[in-house]
Amino acid sequence: MGHLVRHVLPFALLLAALALPARAEPPTVFAAASLTDAMEAVGRAYQEETGEAVRFSFASSSTLARQVEAGAPADIIISANEQWMDYLQEREMIDPTTRMSPISNGLVLVAPRDGGVDEVDITAETDLAALLGTNGRLAVGDPDHVPAGIYAKQSLEALGFWGALEQRLARADDVRAALTLVSRGEASLGIVYATDAQVDGGVKVVGHFPTDSHDPITYPFAVVADAPSGSAARLFDFLTGEEALAIYERHGFRRN
């Protein structure tokens, strides 16, 4: 009899475990690299309020959009430009009724903090090539696909600098990688978002690009079509709500 009980009890425990509801996976947010610090702070606030953790994946918007297109299990995606969200919407990879762009950013020129470049007023008369020096490189997100690099190229073209600087670019996989190149002194100058310059003590802002020299730097948010997490809608409301907007502002983003 004792032998039988020893076998029955584990089987009964197994049945009980199978009867319990499966533990829900935390919702996953794919967000542009420039949002890393702000979004992690928002995630902590969300967990404090709801008790629910959030998973984040940060990369360039182009990388994230292609991952979503390939079926990566994301619930929400936040791009650093409208074009990559358009890309997903055209392919019916997001719920278009949720799409909104609540925050925006600016574009700045950064140099190593201990470097010799002083602050400049960036206009069509500014000699950026001279600021780079003879062998200096200009770090940017790759203009072929990274939003920060696309905005940078737009500005350089609008101001008439592109022809002189195109061959001197240090192309990075995302804007944070471009920032790191400058912080480490591996690039003489870099073009990054204003918010990025705030998070790295190794750089200093030496110029601001005119807002009319590039497209508005807006961040579209959307729920991914058929989001796997049942709590995606609740999280999305939080990410675009008043408490989150205040956190974005503290990290240097502007409300739209």
Automatic annotation (TrEMBL):
SUPFAM superfamilies: Periplasmic binding protein-like II (SSF53850)
One BP annotation, GO: molybdate ion transport
Residues the record lists as binding molybdate: 34, 61, 148, 175, 193
Signal peptide span: 1-24
The keyword S-adenosyl-L-methionine is annotated on this UniProt entry: no
Pfam (any one): SBP_bac_11
Domain of life, source organism: Bacteria
Subcellular location: Cell membrane
Subunit structure and binding partners: The complex is composed of two ATP-binding proteins (ModC), two transmembrane proteins (ModB) and a solute-binding protein (ModA).
Function: Involved in the transport of molybdenum into the cell. Part of the binding-protein-dependent transport system ModABCD.
Family: Belongs to the bacterial solute-binding protein ModA family.
Name listed for the protein in its UniProt record: Molybdate-binding protein ModA
